[in-house]
Structure formats: structure tokens, C-alpha cells
Amino acid sequence: MKNKYTGLVCSFLLMLCGCDEGTIYPDETIDSGRTASVTVTFKGIDAWPKENYLSLAAFGTNTQIPLLTKRISKPTIDGRERTVKLNNLSPDTKSINIAIISNGKKVIYSYCNQPVENNGENIEINFGELELASFKRIQSQVFKTNCLSCHGESSSGLAGNLDLRENIAYKSLVNVKAPVSEEGMNYVTPGDPHNSFILEILEENPIHKDMFNSTGKQEILALIKTWIQEGAPNN
Ligand code: HEC
Q1: CA-nearest residue, atom 10 of ligand 1
Q2: CB atoms inside a 10 Å sphere around CB 174
Q3: Could you tell me if the CB of 142 is within 6 A of ligand 1?
Q4: Measured between alpha carbons, how far apart are the two ends of the chain, in Å?
């Protein structure tokens, strides 16, 4: 017992010596003291991500892997201004973004970004109003990664005769009658999710209903629903 105890004390003293030399911490834990203060007003908060995280993120030259992220908590009401801070920015920081980031720190979708100068000064950004349920996000997060292999970029034809490629998808969907809908629905009826066949396909069609895990599916359905509810703008 006594020996063990002595050992503990010794290693503690050794640790203290290590601290004095300033060598045991990697550089990134030293507080740079540089902070970014970001002001933003969220709209369409029903499209707040459920599987991924809405985050404030600092990027260096690599725009796919953030240097630093901070999850933003979901506001209780739409349209109230908030200020969120990102502390201890690395000197390599090149931009500050508001982005949807996965649990594994992958960028799912970046809403906006502000380039940052390398002058060490604190940063203040006002991103103004940010609409979470944008068609750009649907195109990028949903269509581009999950649908184009069959709906637009397949050599073996266009599944369901529906083209979801960028710059085409909006015209393919909004106010367009879905030929196979028994109720004669449009793919997307602005302001009316219950009359929008795309949601029915993603929830019930055998090819589509298991494309996502359950929270992933909740996230993309909430996104498309909120966008339709808000009038399905080309935003
Ligand atoms: C593996 C291939 C595949 C993928 C991936 C896929 N689909 Fe489909 N989709 C089909 C096929 C095949 C049809 C034709 C209808 C059927 O056979 O049920 C179809 C039909 C549809 C229709 C109805 C079109 C019509 O009028 O017949 C919609 C809407 C649709 N898909 C949306 C999507 C969306 C949105 C995604 C991505 C989240 C997606 N699909 C991903 C194969 C795919």
C-alpha cells in the first residue's frame, strides 16, 4: 500500500514538472482567445435537423472537415434574433459557417459562410435571416445524395420519368401532376403538404420508404414538409 501511494505522489510531481516545461499539452488546447460572435434569425424551425446538428463551424482550407464546431440549440419560436459564440478559434481559420454537421463531423449542408482575415481580432458577423427549409438544402441534402442515381443520372433511364437534377427538379415537381397518384395530386402543391405526392412516395412507396434510417427520414420529411408549408419557393 505504502509503495503504491509513494508511486502516485511521484507521478503527480512528475506531472507538475511536465506542466512547468509547457510541453505536455498539444497546441490546440492553448486558448487563442479569438472569438466569433454570430447573430442570426432562424426561420422555418420545423425543419431543424433531427439526425444531424445545426452548428456554428470554423473551417480552414478544407471546407469539408471543420476545425471547430458548436451545436446551436433549437429556438422555441420562429424568427427571434440570436447571438451564438464560437470561442478559441484556431489561427488557421479561413471562414465561419452556419452548417448542418453530422455526428461524425461531416458537412451535410452549409447555409452560409463568411471569410475571415488572419489578423487575430475577434469576429462579429450578422447573417440576418436564415430560412432552414430552403429548396437549395433539399436539392443538396436529399436529391443530390439520395435520388439522382435513379432520377436523373442513371444510364438505364429515368425512374418514374422524374428528373431531380439541379435546375430541373423544381420544374419537375412544383404544381406538376403526378401521373400515378390515384387522388390526382401534384408532386408538390405549394402550401399543402397533404396534397403533395412526393411525401406520400417517401413515406409509403416500397422502393423509397426504407431509404433512410428513422431519424434521418424524420429530418428530410420535416424539411420537405416545412418547405411545402411555406409555399414551396425556389429559394
Ligand atoms: C433505386 C432507385 C431509386 C432511388 C434511389 C429513388 N427512386 Fe424514386 N422512383 C424509383 C422508381 C423505379 C420509381 C417508379 C415508381 C415505382 O415503380 O414505384 C420512382 C418513383 C418516384 C416518384 C413518383 C414518380 C412517378 O410519378 O411515378 C417520386 C416522387 C420519387 N420516386 C421520388 C424520389 C425521391 C425524392 C428520391 C430520393 C429521396 C428517390 N425517388 C429515390 C426509383 C428510385
Answers
A1: 159
A2: 20
A3: yes
A4: 70
